[in-house]
Amino acid sequence: MKKLLVLAGLLFAAVPALAGETRPVDDSYTVSQRWDGYKDKYPGISRPAAEFQAGQKVLFDQLYKKDGSRELHVDVFLPVKANGQGILLVHGGGWRSGDKSHFYVMASRLAQRGYTVFLPEFRLSPEARYPAGLQDVNDAIVWAKAYPGIDRLAIGGASSGGQMASLLAYTAEQDLFKGQAGDTSVNALIDLDGVLDFTTPLALQNENKPNSVASQWLGGSFEQAPDIWRQASAASHVSASSPPTLIISSGLPRFTAGHEDVAAKLDGFGIRHDYFAFSNAPHDVWLFDPWFSQIVDQMDAFLQAGEVRYEVSGSCGARPKCFASIQAAVDAAAQDRGGPWAVVDIAAGDYYEKVTVSRSQVRLRGQGAGTTRLHFDAVAQTAGKYHRNNWGTPGSATLTIDGDQVEVEGLTVENTFDYLANDARPEGDPSKIGNSQGVALLLDIHSDRVTVTKSALVGYQDTLFANGGRVWIRDSSVSGNIDFIFGNGRVLIEDSEIITRRRAVVPPAGEYQSFLTAPSTQLSQAMGIVIYRSRLTREPGVPDASIALGRPWHPTTTFADGRYADPNAVGQASFLDCWMDAHIHPDHWTVMNGTARDGTKTAVFKPQDSRFFEMGSHGPGARHNDIGIVWQGGVGIDTVREAFFEGWPQP
Q1: Against a cut of 0.70, is the pTM above it?
Q2: Residues 527-569: pLDDT tens digits?
Q3: Is 462 labeled as catalytic in the residue annotation?
Q4: Which residue in the list 193, 483, 566, 581 is annotated as catalytic?
Q5: What CATH number is associated with residue 84?
Q6: Do 290 and 202 share a structural domain?
């Protein structure tokens, strides 16, 4: 609590020099001094309140750099629940005055929204001229990016601090201001009224004066040091690797001189940028309301909406961030933290490759399921080499998703192993493959909050393998034959088409040809596979009354007393308000064999002992026999949605 009281006391005062301090300090720029000059000039102006959430923490004066006897520190504002995004804010003060405490209120507000905020001190011009302060802040960036829990780091600054932040953001791939070894790239830049080009007529008119703060910092006037003035102009360093940029202006044009040139260059590289200007506002809009609160909202919205875009095309030419393969674009996205979301736009065409997405917050966007196809022909018998544990079924996947918040839209994902040719071979034929599973989409163990929209998942046996968290499939199709929607994950399929594909050999009348679902839901998990308001259809050649809605899969699992079917994998599957064609067997559900304790496939698991449920079925295949399903835990779609989307807000 004492630290919080100290913090409150520092909000509107410059920090005094330490006892015995000999370095020159300019304390002319303070929040109180600005308040005194503005309070009678701007009606409605106020000081934003310093509010704290329960559990919020501030770590003061963390050492990030030591140069001889000179120590430099950073204050860290920690959120109660971090979102992985850090923000490093560079204070203003004409490169010669000011203090990191000027950002305390803003840092607290941003921390309350999940951001980890870093406020570094750095050498000012009375102590060390250009580029010393920039080198300091660059070292602070390295320190902040290594801080626990930081997945990505943005940089921002106000006035002279905005100029410094912009220059560092646009020179991250150069060696101009490098100090400590490490990555200094950032995923976003936020410039609050900071000059972007010292060489524009507007900037020269205001900054190129004898003993101006810019001249003092840069070591001379423009005429005396033209190369330095140009080098210090962020606009001259914009490149294809520049981060998304938000520029907020007080409305006083001199302070964001050069922003038009920056915008034009960012447009040329396809980099997202926004510009906003207040009217009738003071220069220091980040210090006072009503502008302060709007700025915090704008920063938050910009960082949350940020996207880094990639392109997949057979004709990239010299276009930046354009790749010939989907995996190459996904790999680039995994290394690039230019925004919370990475968007991979895939041109129409066929892409023969296996793709693995391990980065979170990725959107794969094709041009439509009928024109953009990802396909591969791996099969479980030989696909163990693709899997970390040498397992063939997951190794056969055409597309593997192993990240959180991944979206697939407008894409066909297909496993093209020639299942029918293999199925047609007689038993005992040495060329017949025994393990003929071919997964199209694998939701792997780290996956969660995956969305598949307006897409087609195509295969035969084991098309969709849900082996992670949640996947929501809508306005799409899933096609296959044997257990083609299966696994222990939570699956919600709605407003889609579930298409049963034929087998090479038609089974005798009354026998099962294949099975739509094979859930292996753990007993500790209430929901497994739910198919809602969808159509259950078939390809030509699929007989009437030959397809089960599902059967219970108890995967063979290693336990302390042996290796056998998991007794706790009591599958859950529900069909709600679905139209069913006549290919659905009148029993609707059937048995599945599993591994007994003696190692044989003689354990029989019955639907009556599983968690199967249907409600509102209609169509030729909806009528069914009473086979003694006794489970009473089935629920409607509203209850399903409430549980399924917890922690995953939906429109």
Answers
A1: no
A2: 999 999 999 999 999 999 999 999 999 999 999 999 999 999 9
A3: yes
A4: 483
A5: 3.40.50.1820
A6: yes
